[in-house]
Amino acid sequence: MTGAFTNILRSLERLMNWRIRGVRWVEIIGAAAVAVMVLSVYVAKTAAARENSRIGEIEREIAENSQRVRLLRAEIARLEQPGRLEALSRAAGLEPVDVRRQGDETSLEAISPRRAAPAEAPAGEPAAVAPVADETVSDRAAEAEQ
Hints:
5 helices, mainly alpha, 66% helix
């Protein structure tokens, strides 16, 4: 067993001492491995820097958009002020609706008879449907105003 082990050690020693133009091949492989590692670290750092700049750009966009949202909400609040709306409606000639101008069921039936609720029919009989006149909506509205 010791003979086999010593043979393995001698072959490893010969392999480690094998030289190519005066340089051991183990040193060449080590230098190549170090060069690959340096290159991979450089590529990884470059990719990380690119991602970092993209993250900063997206964060700036988010900050700008949130500022726009705040400005738009403030503009909505300003535009929806009741005093401003009241002044605009008065300038346009509009006025509040009189509370006494309320409709009841009969006035609604006069304007739109097909939307009137059908009379309750006894059980077993179909409900009667009111006939629809060939009037236009403006004719019905004119009748309702009279």
